[in-house]
Write a structure and sequence with these properties.
elongated
Length: 96
């Protein structure tokens, strides 16, 4: 089993992403209901379709979640490689 300290920042980012997903759902779904958006009628729609439909303070959470899904791909790959080759400590860990 591979045990490297550099996996901790990746796990933290996964947990933060899951937290943001929960926060997004807890705020967006009620806002959609208040705006009269029925989940059964928005098949194929995207989150961007809710711009101007739900309040900006609700969409802000969705924007943060979208960025968490878009940006860290290279980070996860780098962490995995560094962990596998045994370079997941020292400066690499501090940078992660």
């Amino acid at each position: 089993m591979i045990n490297s300290p550099i996996f901790a920042p990746a796990i933290a980012l996964v947990l933060w992403s899951l937290f943001m997903l929960g926060w997004l759902a807890l705020t967006r779904l009620p806002a959609m209901a208040r705006a009269g958006v029925a989940l059964t009628t928005v098949v194929g729609a995207r989150g961007v379709n809710l711009e101007g439909v739900v309040p900006d303070r609700v969409n802000w959470k969705a924007h943060n979640y979208a960025h968490l899904m878009e940006q860290p791909t290279l980070f996860y790959a780098t962490v995995l490689i560094l962990g596998l080759i045994g370079q997941g400590d020292g400066l690499n860990l501090k940078l992660a």
